Structure formats: C-alpha cells, structure tokens
Amino acid sequence: MSKFRFLTSGESHGKCLTAIIEGIPAGFEINIDLINAELKRRQSGYGRGERMQIECDTAEITSGVRFGKTLGSPVTVVIQNRDFENWQKIMSVLPEDFTEEKSFTRCRPGHADYAGSIKYNHKDLRNVLERSSARKTAIETAVGAVAKQILSKFNVKCSSKILQIGKAYENFELEIDKAKEIGDTLSGKFEVVFENLPVGLGSYVHWDRMLDGKIAQAVMSIPAVKAVEIGQNPLGFSGSEYHDEMFVENGKITRKTNNAGGIEGGMTNGEPLVVKAVMKPIPTMRKPLNTVDLADMKECQAHFERSDTCAVEACAVVAEARIACVLADEVLQKFGGDSFDEIFRRLGF
Amino acid sequence: MSKFRFLTSGESHGKCLTAIIEGIPAGFEINIDLINAELKRRQSGYGRGERMQIECDTAEITSGVRFGKTLGSPVTVVIQNRDFENWQKIMSVLPEDFTEEKSFTRCRPGHADYAGSIKYNHKDLRNVLERSSARKTAIETAVGAVAKQILSKFNVKCSSKILQIGKAYENFELEIDKAKEIGDTLSGKFEVVFENLPVGLGSYVHWDRMLDGKIAQAVMSIPAVKAVEIGQNPLGFSGSEYHDEMFVENGKITRKTNNAGGIEGGMTNGEPLVVKAVMKPIPTMRKPLNTVDLADMKECQAHFERSDTCAVEACAVVAEARIACVLADEVLQKFGGDSFDEIFRRLGF
Amino acid sequence: MSKFRFLTSGESHGKCLTAIIEGIPAGFEINIDLINAELKRRQSGYGRGERMQIECDTAEITSGVRFGKTLGSPVTVVIQNRDFENWQKIMSVLPEDFTEEKSFTRCRPGHADYAGSIKYNHKDLRNVLERSSARKTAIETAVGAVAKQILSKFNVKCSSKILQIGKAYENFELEIDKAKEIGDTLSGKFEVVFENLPVGLGSYVHWDRMLDGKIAQAVMSIPAVKAVEIGQNPLGFSGSEYHDEMFVENGKITRKTNNAGGIEGGMTNGEPLVVKAVMKPIPTMRKPLNTVDLADMKECQAHFERSDTCAVEACAVVAEARIACVLADEVLQKFGGDSFDEIFRRLGF
Amino acid sequence: MSKFRFLTSGESHGKCLTAIIEGIPAGFEINIDLINAELKRRQSGYGRGERMQIECDTAEITSGVRFGKTLGSPVTVVIQNRDFENWQKIMSVLPEDFTEEKSFTRCRPGHADYAGSIKYNHKDLRNVLERSSARKTAIETAVGAVAKQILSKFNVKCSSKILQIGKAYENFELEIDKAKEIGDTLSGKFEVVFENLPVGLGSYVHWDRMLDGKIAQAVMSIPAVKAVEIGQNPLGFSGSEYHDEMFVENGKITRKTNNAGGIEGGMTNGEPLVVKAVMKPIPTMRKPLNTVDLADMKECQAHFERSDTCAVEACAVVAEARIACVLADEVLQKFGGDSFDEIFRRLGF
C-alpha cells in the first residue's frame, strides 16, 4: 500500500550507509544540498559527543537521477563512513580478517545488546551494536530529506522545536552541562509541525490506513523514542474542553484551537499536524550501569563506547524525516501520476 | 512481511461486520466462546450508553475452521448487527432505496466528518460516520481474540487496567456520573501488559521491523487514542535513573525495574511488555459543540447521536486485541511452520 | 504497493465464500447484476458437471455500498453455498460435530491432496480439498467483476475466447463428448483481451512493477493453469519478424501487428493486451488414476468426487477476472484520487 | 508476506548497480566468489556482443556481512560499472552537466521507449533506456546468487539448459552465426530445474500464496520473457495421459512421470521443480525496424545501440536467480528462525 517505499542498510562503523527509494515520480528536481543540510542538522545540537565532528555526513546519489531530475527509477543515496579507514579490519566482510579486537560481551542496559544477542545468536555484541546504533538514522534522515523536498513542491512546510530537556523547559544548555559533568545523560521532549497539508491524507476506512497510526509507527521506531502524542495530550480534559469547535470566517471554516493536532478520524483536517515525542536518555554513559557479561554470566559494569549527553535535537530532525516519508507517500498516493509534470497539470499548478 | 494478515469491513448500522484472517497455521483449536467473551468485555465498562445493550455482539465463523480446528485456509469471522432490522432501509445497498432520512450535514468536531466529507466527496455525513464509527473495533476485537488464543498456546498472558479517568486515579464511577449529569464526556489513560513473551520479537535491523513502532501504530490507530507510551515515560529521568540494570540470580539474568516496558532495541527483552495509551473524550456530546453545517456553510450546533460518557475500558480491550495481532504475527514469523503440530514439535512442547 | 487489495475465503462445501475488497474510491456505482452475470458465465460452458446447476451462484454485498454507490470503505461480497444444508454436519465449525463421513485418504494425483496433507498435517484429505477446490474461483470472479466495472468507467473493454480444447481448434463439443464418454478430461487454451487501456500501466523501473509479471502471477495462480503467454509466443521468430514496427497515420502512431500483446518494457503500449493460457485437464476423473492411500501407504485408485469433463471456458472467465484486478489496481494507482468524482474531474471526463 | 525482500537500483551506464536485501537470518556464510561466478555465467553464452567483455561484473558487499557471515542486518551488494568513466558526463547526477549527447528520440519497437516516454514524460529516450535495459538483471543475478546459497544450505540444487534457439533444437551456434551475419536476432526457450525442495512450499489457501503464480511473476518480469510454463505444457493431453500417478516403492511414494513440473495445488510436491520460458528476440538490431521519431512524429529507422544476437543463456541464468529468490523466501518463511544456527537446530542438521 505504499508508493514511496525504501530500504536502508549499513553498520555504524561499516563502509557506508545506503538507501534505495522506489516510487518517486519522474521529473522531480532533487537538491542534494538540501539533503546535506538535513544531515548537518542531525549532527548538530548542544550535548553531542566527538563523533559528530568525525562524521560530517554528506550524501551521494548513485542512481535514479540525471541532470538534477529523477528518472522515475529507484534513487540510491549513499553516505560514506569517513572513519572507515580506522575500522576496515574490524568491520571487514572477509572471513580471513576475523579478529576479536573491539568485540565485547558485557550487555549495555537500554540497548539492543541482550535481546539482539539471543535473537541473532551473536556472541560478540559488536555484531548487534553495529546495526542497532543510532547511526542508521543518518540515512533515514537523507531519505526524509528527499520526502521533504517532495512535500515542499506541494507547499508543505516542516519545523520542530525542543519542549523539554531533563527537567528544564528552557536554558537547556545548563542542564546538559550539569549532566555531562557527572557523566550522566538526559531525556527530552520535542514537537514536530507540518503545515499546509491537504485535507484528507490517511483514512478511517481501515486500521492500517489511519494516518495517526502510521505516524506513531514512524516516530516510535526511532531508537530511544518511548512516547508519541498527536496534538495536545487529552489526559484530564473533558469533551467540552478538548474538541476543536468549528467556525465560519469569510465563508471558510476556521478553528480557534488545534488540540487534535491536525488529525481527526485518522486523517489530516487542514490544521497544522502536531506530533510530540519523548526520547529516553542515551543508555551509553560514562557513569556505567550494572549489568551482566554474557561470556561468563557474571555481574559487571556496562561497556562504554564514546557517546553523547543529549541527542534530543537530533532526534527531532530524524522525526521530521520519518514523518515526512509517511506524508510524501500519502501525497503521492492521493495525487497519483508518474511524473511531476502530470501531477502538477492535474492540480492546476 | 506479515504472516497473520487480515482485512475487516462493515458499517456501524450495516448488516454485519466481517473479518478475513489469512495466515493462521492449521490444527489450531479456536474457541468461539473466548471470542465472544472479548466482545462482551468490549461492551462493558462503567459509562457506556444504551447501544451496548442492543449490540450484545456474538461472532460466527464461516470459513477456515472445521470441527473446532483451523484448516490453514482463511478464517472468516462475522458479527451480525442485531439492530439491522431498524436500519435496513437507511443502510440499503440498493439505489432504489435512496432516502435522506438519518442523513446529516452538521460536522461533529473531533470526528472524521469534516475531513471525510472532503476526502470522499460525501454530502451526507452519514456516509462518513458509518465507517468511522468505533463500531468497527468490535470486529478488530474478534480478530484480536483469535490472536490472543494463538499467543496463549505459547503461554503468553495478557491483561489491562485503567490508570486514570478524567482527573481521577481511582473511584472512576463518581467522575463518570458527574460528567454524565452535565452531558459531558471523559478522557482517560490505560495500561496493557503482555507477559511471557519470547525474547527477540521485533528487530532493530530495519525501521519497519521495530516492535515498538508496530505496537504504536496498532494502538494509535484505535479511534480516539492520541498518545502511546512504551513502559515508563522517560520524561524528566536521567540515564542513570531510567535504564534497567541487569543482575544475575541463580545463573539467570534478572532486573529490578522495567522502565523500558519490556522493549529494548525494538525487541522484546523478556520482561513484561507494558503499553500505555491516552484516549480522548468521546466527541459526541449531549452538550453540543459549535460547528458548521456543510450544506449552507453556516455555524450551528453539532449533530448528536446517542453516545457513551466514557469508553476507556472498552478502548483498553481493543488495545489488547490490536497489540495481540502484532505479537501473534511476530510469533508465527519467528517459529515458522504451517501447522501447530509442526510448531510445537520444533519447540519441544 | 497495491491500492485495490482483497482477501478471499471459503471452503468448497462451507457455508459461504467471502471477499473483502479494500481501496475502492467512493462514489462508484456497483451493479450487482453484472457481478451475477459473471458468476453465471463462470458456471457455463460445454462440459460442466451437475454441480454447476446446484451452485447457481449469486452475490450479496454486505458492506461498503450504500444506495448503489461505494462509500470508500471496504466492500464485502458474499456467495452463499446453496448446497450447504446437505453439508452442514460434515463441514461444521464445531468440535462436537466431528465425523469421518466424507473423509478420504487416497491422494488424487494432480490435486493439492498429497502436498497439502504434508504441509498442513491433515490426515483427512477433505481438509485439503475443501479449500484447494476450484470453487474458490467463484469469489475471485465476483471480485474481478467489481474490477471490471471500475475498468469500464475508463472505457476499458474485456473479452475472451477458446483457442483449443483437447486436440481440436474448433467443434469443441464433439471433443468433449468423446472424452466424457470414456470418463476422461480435457486440457485447453484460451485468450483474454483487454482493449482501450491507457499507455503506461505497469513499469520497467523495478521487477515487481512489471505488468507482464503481475499478469502472469494472476493467471498462473488459477488452479489448473500451467502456461501463460503475453501476445504471440515468440518461439521460432527472429527479431525482424517478431517486433511490431511503428508507423504514423493522421499524426498518430499506429502498428500493423501486435505480437507484443500490448506490453513492451513491462508496460501497456496502447495496443490491445493479449494474454493466453493453457489449462491442464481436470485431474478428478471417472476413469481413475493409480495412487497411494496415505492411511496405509498402499497403492490404490484415486478418490472420485463428481466433476467436469472440461472447464476451459470457466477458466477463461476467471482469468478475465484475475487480470481485471491487476489492471484496476494499476489504473487506480495511476490516477490517484479518493472518489470517482475527483478522478473524473482530473481526467476531464 | 515476504521475508527475503529486496530493492534494486541502477542505470545501464550509471555509476553502479545496487541491491539491498532485508530479511536474511544471521550467521549465514556468504561466499562472494559464488556471486561473481553467477555474474560471469550471466555474461557468457554464445551470441553476446562486445559489451560483455567491458562489463566483467564483480560484486562488492558493503553492509550486513562481517568476517564472512551475515549479521541479520540488511545486506548491500554493489556492482560498479567499469565503463562509467566514459559515461560520467552523459549520466551525471548534476543539473549543470546537462548535455544532449547520446540522447535520442527514435522509439525502438519491442523496447520500453514509447510507453516509457509517455508514462514518465521523458523527451530524451535515454532516460527510459537506461533503466529499462537488461543491465539491471546483473544485480538481480547477484541477489539470486545469495538466494541460491541459502537454498544450497537446505541441499537444494539448481540447473538450467537451453531447449531451442531460433528454429534449432541443437547446434545453436550455427543458428546464431547465421543470424549475426544478417544483423538479425533470435528467440529461444530454456528450462530451469530445482531439485530437493521440501514438500509444501507455496500454498493453495490464497491466490497470492500459490507458488506457481509467484514463479510465473518472477520469470515473466525478466525483460524479453513472453511465455512461462510449469512442467510439461498440457496442451493436447487428456487427463489420463497428463497426471502423474503415484506408486509406493520401499514404503515411499514415487512417481514415474513429472508432467506437473513439481507443483500441484500451488505447492511443491517433492518432484523436481521444472520451469520453462520463452525469450523473445532482442529488439535492438543492426538491421533496423521501421519506427517513429517522437521529436517530429515522422517515420524513421530505429536507433541502434550495440547489442547481442542472442541472450537466451543469460536469460536462463537470470531466471534461475529470480526463481531462487522466490524459493529462498518460501523456505525462510517455512522454517522461521532469526539465525541459521536456530534453523538448523530445529531441522536436526
């Protein structure tokens, strides 16, 4: 049921991250600078560790685009790992390169380590960590940057902001500095807003077509997100307080509130789409947690790999990207068409 | 990517609700009484209106089961609408029965009415209401009741409880009585718990295989749900406070906390799966909201159709059902097999 | 990737056959007489056995349509089994009705019996036969009849004809009479043609979007079909003989041949779509085949259940239906839109 | 419904071809030499043009494999285009590199050119040709080579042979030499056989699970394939001649014939799976066809790009690959499991 479909791949310290996007109509101008700008946004934000400087991700398109425009064929986006030189032995594809350097067996609570080792029968937890890493959100951000460009053709605008970091509603830097000092990490809450969406994306006719459900999946599947809300959390509100009454102004329907966050009946209703999410504190900490070494089943301290104090800003950027993919898919399905010329001719643009 | 797949259909006052479930292995004993028990649970709960008495849903299986066991072929579940007699003219399939009786044009805020009328080009909002109704969750509950029975074969247990109604954390009846008296409706929060799940359902390897994402979609796509959380909402917690440390007891890994709600890295981690959700207050109120009549674009009072004061208990039952479908799919994929004999032989049961 | 999606269910002697179709835009007039006409065509044709008289299938719509028009919600089609009265004990859903009457263990070569019994661990081969029966094509024909009606809104026309029965290219009745007399069955070949399809359905950009591939699946998945061809089978032709040269007539592109059968590069090319298929002889014969009884692993004669001598005409009707589903999906994806009013406004109809 | 899922990308003269394969269990040893061996087989065969020498494809794995074994995460396979140096301006991603060199507007009959130009609104037919090229089958062959390695773990063996080239059943070289001399191209027929498949892959329970249907799609979606058969084409056979009787030998079921080609009721039945297909003659010929120039709508001679006389052997290799993908998916679904250790433990290997 999806038109804008994609697969992504790549390990945290592997050679590169890759995405193949299938279903973009032809004749769409892709601006690679805008992709790179999103990748940069994802790496920014107060509270990030050193790796962000090493990464400095840039995207390359290796298929599906010619002379700046989509061909209608699958678009491939690749982000090289700039640090790969230092990891090529450790992450080698070849059996003869086998090494236990950088392998580890102490589960990090809050990570995929424990369940991943059982599911995939991995003794070396690096085999889990490398894919379960938040690094994979870089390529998801690149895919979302393409989706955003499609949406912007339909005049859809996107933004996000931080609502809370740790216990602070403002002056987040101070909160982050304090946590960093003691080697701890911070949770936070953010909000993503999409404006100008056409009315009627998504549908109530079948559960798997409800737009709020699709958005919730997109956001909750970002590593570290534990809570998702659409619009104003209704907890404690009565019906007469919560629902957004409708009025007429200059012959048009208007509302004075947007508690519904732009979605009624699983569909966009013309008001700004507002999605909020809570990110848990990063579980890799200098101040380590008690855990278990799977090699000998003894209690120990969790393995520490260099990390961030707070990545809520990055998480918001990824959430924008992930929601943009859902919306681009909906818009392309709604308008049909195999080329942007056709779509815009239909829309009278 | 789904083995337990299904489609549902049916209008609120139509002849019947139907579901076809494809992908259940053969040789599985389906107990129809357990399906009906779930349907009854969904209709119970303090604060429901009169319709619940009329409904008194019972399921019939019309395919895929012989002598109490699944054949491996698609299973069809039908719930007849007991009130259909009174609606057969109004909901008739036939063009010659056209009538404007029971049609309406005044949008109800908080419902699909407005966006649905634009999306599907419906002048009569009944054409929207009939499918966007929460009535469709009855058949989803029936499908979920089948999923639960599958899970119980793997010793998985499921329960739910109410956490908050309106502003009350307990004595919910009083809160509901007060709201009913003034014709208002109430929001609420509930929790669903699944115990005994195998470690490693879901996966971190690709965004659309993350179990938390799938669960979030399942729950957020229930009409009226606006917020979903997995485990303890991490807002305000630091890393050292939040993550669930691991210990060894009698040679086995244990935890003293379950803030993660049973999911790490998008997978079950062996702890109870805990999902919380917030339901908005029902938007159909005796005390009506200001709105717009689409027929003349004039402001007016919203249309009132007999309704409940609070349906949070029912919503929790539906959430159990919806999550059970996700988990049954995961379990069936994990263990493979085309018959339950084969599955259990593999598992050494 | 599919908009017109559906599930079907039902056993051969079960209570009913059911289909749920999800994805039909709103405001589409469904004519149930046209569905029944297709069901009748499927039951006709020279060489059919007695069951066809018993069946006399008629479709009922139980959801998704009001006053003759689609609502946008899932459409349910049900075909009751008129003979169910005589089978309700044997096909009962209830465990307490268990009986071995009508059970059998002698595999019928050419049927699903053997592989089905192993796959689903069925001792009683009736548990296989009941779903593997060609009976299920009745409900597929009903779904296809809806798809055809959608296509006819776009002026697409469909027809089919028999090319060969047994060894005869004409006078098929005689061939069938001879086979019937000796208790044998006949294979045959037929052709389905769709005219007026828009150029560019399907796509070369990804293997699973190639229209010829989708059509081949649709037709080969009809029970008893063993060969599928698009257009003229190219075997023995050279490039200069085979390919359809292009000419200009009155400023428009024309062709003098249609060896490609209307598909180039996995897309419709504006010429009639021509699909041919070969149906194997029905494997249930009065003159029985040597086989094995799975109960005692002894050689024996195959179980005989009343059957047809030749069902090639019926098979062609089913093929029309199955291909229509593929094409309706493609057309709806191409034009987008949630209501037929919207689609036709776009198309300037 | 698919576990072994993949997307492919890449233009004929673009930088590279890429595939991402999602769903391979962990701990599976991938042998890259076996992938390259299949790529070489695809480029071999009597009657190929010069490009095959230039190509000499080799695969690189850039994700999902570490020290020779799969991690459970998506596997990326890349085939660099060795000739890209000469095409990088013509196939540039950048708008500023726009050039009309190598562009063309004369439709080649038998290719995607005409329909593709309309569907995707391409004026320069190179924008169609680059993806509709058979070049994309190289990466499909690589994906299939991975699927074959998975199947070989289950002892499944695969082979293919040519049945006919042009009008010749043997001495194909002579036929090809003659065609080459006059600048013509040849059609042909081949057969692919898979042995040792478990009984019960595929299913009769729903049309989209029929294995013959899936195989037909896989093979018919190979560019230039116009006909697909499973087993012996039944045309002209009666029921008593065609069906494969069953016998008992040493307590096991045996058959003396395999007309069904290993599939009954849409499932493997334990006999060798036999698939035949007819490839049309390559439509790019030195001896050009009459066609139309889309730039001025005048009749003209078709554009000629260096080509092969006959590629039936290559087509057979691609068919092996494509069918292997379908079968690997079925096998992985049947056995479940997230690591090969788990799968083999279950199977008692």
Task: Characterise the protein shown here.
The structure is a homotetramer of 349-residue chains. Chain A has a single domain (5-347), classed as Chorismate synthase, AroC fold (4-Layer Sandwich), CATH 3.60.150. Chain A has helices at 32-43, 51-55, 113-119, 126-132, 137-153, 172-181, 211-220, 239-242, 312-335, 340-347; strands at 5-9, 16-22, 59-63, 65-66, 69-70, 75-80, 157-165, 188-195, 225-230, 246-249, 252-255, 263-264, 267-268, 273-279, 290-293, 298-301. Chain A contains 10 helices and 16 strands. In chain A, strands 1-2-6-3 form a 4-stranded antiparallel sheet, covered by helices on one side. Chain A has a 4-stranded antiparallel sheet with strand order 7-8-14-9. The longest helix of chain A has 24 residues, at 312-335. Chains in contact: A-B, A-C, A-D, B-C, B-D, C-D. Chains A and D meet through strand 1, strand 2, strand 3, strand 4 and helix 4 of A and strand 1, strand 2, strand 3, strand 4 and helix 4 of D. Strand 9 of chain A pairs antiparallel with strand 9 of chain B.
Q: What's the SSE blueprint?
A:
4 copies of one chain form a homotetramer.
Chain A: E1 5-9, E2 16-22, H1 32-43, H2 51-55, E3 59-63, E4 65-66, E5 69-70, E6 75-80, H3 113-119, H4 126-132, H5 137-153, E7 157-165, H6 172-181, E8 188-195, H7 211-220, E9 225-230, H8 239-242, E10 246-249, E11 252-255, E12 263-264, E13 267-268, E14 273-279, E15 290-293, E16 298-301, H9 312-335, H10 340-347
Antiparallel strand pairs in A: 1-2, 2-6, 3-6, 4-5, 7-8, 8-14, 9-14, 10-11, 12-13, 15-16
Helix pairs in contact in A: 1-5, 1-9, 5-9, 7-9
